[in-house]
Every structure is written in structure tokens, then in C-alpha cells.
Design a protein that fits this description.
CATH superfamily: Flavodoxin domain
Number of domains: 1
CATH architecture: 3-Layer(aba) Sandwich
Structural class: alpha/beta
Strand content: 15-25%
Order of helices and strands: EHEHHEHEHEHH
């Protein structure tokens, strides 16, 4: 079974989206997937800058993240909504991962052939939905197959228990099922390759 790379587009301590990723990752693991959950704050990189890239090459941490993307067949992303879009943190790391380091590297090697599932949690009433529209479009344009199922958790400030699970058991199951869905889809695709 192909591995899944899971991450949240927020580095805030106590991030709702980090909690959401952990729930979905549990679902994927229960379905037999190998899931690697990473913190984007561990990949501290400068803003994409072609002058910097030409002078020093791709930053080490950007290269490490890109290698993780290449090594996994599935992507599980939870992103908060910032001004009806995705976070600068998430956009920047994905932009770095899209950069080619040599002329013989396959174009968009970190994205091509990947399958992704998206989710979000937000204190607002739409649960981060508008940001996922942007993320879905971006990933699709980069060659990722984004599954149509997604989950947006509104009222996130009161949606989670102290243990990190969702208070509403139906919501909890729905997020776990996103992980299971991605795990099953990735497994089928890997077997047919």
C-alpha cells in the first residue's frame, strides 16, 4: 500500500486543523495505510524567491519536504482559511515543492500521480470551505487527483474535546472516513500501477 503524507496548513499551537489531520490519519491507519504526519513549522523556509534559488539552490528544508511528497502516493491536507484562501505557510511550501532542481527532473514530480483528500476547521460558520476551493483548484492544476469528498468543521473553537477528538461523533466518523477513503483509493491505485 502506498504511503500517505499528512499535514495541516497551520503552525499555531493547538491548531484545529492539526487536530483534524490526526483524526483523519487514525482513519487511514485503521484502513492499513502507512501515514506520515508532519508539522510544516519543521520545514522553515524563506518565501519562494528565484534570485535566492539561483544563488543558493533549493533550501534544505524545502528539499526534505519535497522528498517526502515524492515518497508518498497520497496527500492528506487540512487547511484553515485565510481571507477566503489558503495560508501563506501552506502556499509557500507547496510552491517550493513545485520547483525543479535539474533539467532531467520530471516536471512537478512531487505532485504528479498523487491523490489527495482535503479538510478544514474554522471558528467561522463555513468551516474554512472557501479556502478548500482554492486549494482544490491549485492541487488539480499541479497534477493531483483531489477526491470529491471533503469535510469542513465550523465552530471549531468548541468542536473538539480536550483529548483532540470531535465532540460530535458523526463528525468524528466523517473525518475518520476521509482517511479511510484516501487509504483505500491509494491502495487500489498502487496495485494497478
Amino acid at each position: 500500500m502506498g504511503g500517505i503524507l499528512a499535514f495541516a496548513g497551520s503552525s499555531r499551537v493547538g491548531s484545529y486543523n492539526r487536530r483534524l489531520i490526526c483524526i483523519a490519519a487514525e482513519g487511514a491507519r485503521a484502513a492499513g495505510a502507512q501515514v506520515t504526519v508532519v508539522e510544516l513549522s519543521d520545514f522553515d523556509v524563506p518565501m519562494v524567491n528565484e534570485n535566492l534559488e539561483a544563488e543558493k539552490g533549493m533550501p534544505l528544508k524545502a528539499r526534505e519536504f519535497k522528498k517526502l511528497m515524492i515518497a508518498n502516493d497520497g496527500l492528506m491536507i487540512a487547511s484553515p482559511e485565510y481571507n477566503s484562501s489558503i495560508t501563506p505557510l501552506l502556499k509557500n511550501i507547496l510552491d517550493w515543492a513545485s520547483r525543479s532542481e535539474s533539467s532531467d527532473e520530471q516536471f512537478l514530480s512531487a505532485f504528479n500521480g498523487k491523490t489527495a483528500v482535503l479538510m478544514s476547521a474554522s471558528p467561522g460558520s463555513l468551516g474554512g470551505l472557501r479556502g478548500l476551493v482554492v486549494l482544490r483548484m491549485m492541487l488539480g492544476n499541479l497534477g493531483v487527483t483531489v477526491l470529491p469528498d471533503q469535510k469542513c468543521i465550523s465552530g471549531a473553537a468548541t468542536a473538539f474535546s480536550e483529548s483532540g477528538s470531535l465532540v460530535d461523533s458523526r463528525q468524528q466518523s466523517a473525518v475518520e472516513n476521509l482517511g479511510r477513503l484516501l487509504a483505500g483509493t491509494v491502495a487500489k491505485l498502487v496495485r494497478t500501477d
